[in-house]
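Run folding on both entries below.
>entry_1
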Amino acid sequence: MNDLQMPLRLGFAPSLQGIDFLVAPCNREAVAWLDRWPDWPAPALVLHGPGGCGKSHLARIFRDRTSGRDLAWEHDGPEEAVSALETGPTLIIEDVDRHLDAVAERTILHAYNTARDLGHHLLLTGRRAAAAWPLRLPDLRSRLLAAPSAAVKSPDDDLLRALLVKLCADRRLSVDEAVIGYLVRRMDRSFESAGALVSALDAASLARHRPISRALAREVLEMLAGRSCAKSE
């Protein structure tokens, strides 16, 4: 099938407010820990789970709720991390296990010590639990292994169905419940895939001047599967 011609259109505004986050068995542990803040037993909390499971969404909600700051791996080091914690109660450091090197470890260690001294907190995220991170600094490793950790798992069918409904509502799309069920049974099982799928459905519907039916859903799934195969070659 040929790629659809995607029309120009105004952007949309998905809701990222905490009240709209979909709580389910796969993320309930993580949500409970974030709700406990600032009553954490250590200066840091580690959220871990596969790509697309919703860690970044949770991190954004936590940052906004606590008036925290994000660490930018591109240009922030130990001084910037310390400064952020001196001026705010929380610092969010995402994708730790994808950025670990000597500078990153020093940055996290300084941030941890500063948070401990000030009574502030770090939220760290990664695809694996801290015990699996290749940490070389013994002091940092011991601190992170002692910190509480919460797993965020891949979404199940019920959560994917609710997520698709929410994403369609964000774009003001009308999609029949039977079409949602059809998509859930065939889509890649991640938050990222759900977002890409709804975006493609929206664009395809506009390009073809057709409502989102099962036939259009099948075409979009085939298109996305083709793109995925092309990237892997």
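>entry_2
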Amino acid sequence: MENAAPTAIAHDLSFMGLFLQADPIVKGVMLLLVVASIACWTVVFEKIVRLAAAKRQAKAFDALVRSGGSLESDQKGISGQVVRAGLDAWRDQDPSESRAERRDRIERAMRNALGLEVKRLQSGLALLATSGSTAPFIGLFGTVWGIMNSFSSIAKSQDTSLAVVAPGIAEALFATAIGLVVAIPAVMAYNKLTGDVARIQGAFVSGIGVLGNRLARDRAVQRRAAAE
């Protein structure tokens, strides 16, 4: 009686199938990368909204200081913090100060306020940078681990056919693919968002120079009027 041919084991090579069939360590790597991806996209969407608002505030601040309009109006957001810091410094009278010294002090106060707001805009960007730089290596770790398991299975079964090797290697390479899917958008988003933050900061710094000169000049005018 002839021996029956061994039945080939069917392998599900879909994304979910590769995940379910993977080694527990490789599964953990995949889950970690998925969580990192969700966190990165959360940061990206939150920053898109906040930076859009900050860009509008930068334009409004620039228009305000260049038009010479009233600074006592209710300013909100970054613009409000910067203007309030400038006015507080402007109200701090020191008769011994020169105009240049007063301008420097007013601008320094506004730049400090701006720096705090910029730090808030930058919060979360470190996650994008970290994910972009480490995700490929985390995925590679899962790949190496999975391939090691594949070679171990080959040694045990003494079968080097593609049907035996392919599923394990596919599961392993899937981890690297997930790592790249996390890293590439994270790096692109980090570069774009940091550039946007820098441009917003530059727009405010430009306006701070104009406003600092205006406030220092206004104080000088007041001092001369009081002496007459």
